[in-house]
Design goal:
Blueprint (H helix, E strand, L loop, with lengths): L5 E12 L2 E12 L3 E5 L6 H8 L7 E6 L2 E2 L9 E4 L11 H11 L4 H14 L15 H13 L5 E5 L7 H16 L3 E6 L2 H4 L4 E6 L2 E6 L1 H7 L5 H8 L5
Parallel strand pairs: 3-8, 3-9, 6-7, 7-8
Antiparallel strand pairs: 1-2, 1-4, 4-5, 9-10
Helix pairs in contact: 3-4, 7-8
Length: 243
């Protein structure tokens, strides 16, 4: 693979909190323009890893590179869109005020700001609720607003930590359609999930269990290697669990 095609490079990354090791010697390359899924149960280490990629934490050992630059790096903040597992929203403000606040942090002003706010709210199907206080939003609406904020500055790399938790199946489908559209624009997406049908929508998957990367490949490759019908079965085989 040509060096220029690699967008994210994780090299020998381990992370410990005290005596508890959360990530164990992870090596992984993620390519430009792909939807890469990190699949694993809660507590497997997915959130710790994506926080490092977003520059919010550092590994105990090893190095993370985004666009061939070592993280964390302030230079890269504008090139990354990050959606955390818990919504970082100002509940006492309206959705529009939240979007204006975050877009100003990214340097969006005037007509460009108004245009992007309109576009992202349309994308997440919240245009009709833009003046509503966030405290009056449901959990699913807050997830969608968090996604809209992550997309505001048109980042090249989107890091999304369980973006569809609490979102109904119809909207989940439309959000995955939006992910495909972003990929078609050349964006790279990293999506953590423990939902098996979402895993099948990714171009490639990294299976994580107990802080270890146990397999990497396309959904079809992983199923074929384990003689499995579903990703869930493949995960159990790679994890050494009897089917």
């Amino acid at each position: 693979m040509k060096e220029s095609e690699v967008c994210v490079s994780i090299k020998n990354v381990s992370k410990s909190f005290g005596k508890h090791q959360v990530l164990k010697d992870i090596n992984l390359d993620i390519n430009e323009g792909e939807i890469f899924g990190l699949l694993g149960p809660s507590g497997a280490g997915k959130t710790t890893l994506v926080k490092e990629l977003a520059g919010l934490d550092e590994p105990s050992k090893g190095e993370n590179y985004l666009f061939h630059e070592k993280m964390p790096s302030l230079n890269l903040i504008k090139r990354i869109g990050y959606m955390a597992q818990s919504d970082a929203l100002y509940e006492e403000l309206s959705a529009k005020e939240n979007l204006q606040f975050f877009s100003e942090l990214y340097g969006l002003k005037g007509q460009k700001q108004a245009q992007r706010i309109e576009e992202v709210m349309e994308l997440v199907k919240l245009s009709g609720d833009i003046t509503k206080l966030v405290s009056n939003y449901s959990g699913g609406m807050k997830r969608r607003l968090s996604l809209a904020i992550a997309l505001l500055h048109e980042p090249e790399l989107l890091i999304l930590d369980e973006p569809t938790v609490g979102i109904d199946p119809v909207l989940r489908k439309s959000i995955w359609k939006a992910f495909s559209d972003l990929k078609a624009q050349g964006k790279t997406l990293i999506v953590t999930t423990h939902v098996m049908d979402e895993a099948d929508k990714c171009d490639r998957l990294g299976l994580i269990r107990d802080g270890k990367l146990i397999a990497v490949g396309t959904p079809e490759e992983l199923k074929k290697q384990t003689n499995s019908v579903t990703i869930e079965e493949a995960f159990l085989v790679f994890g050494g669990v009897e089917r």
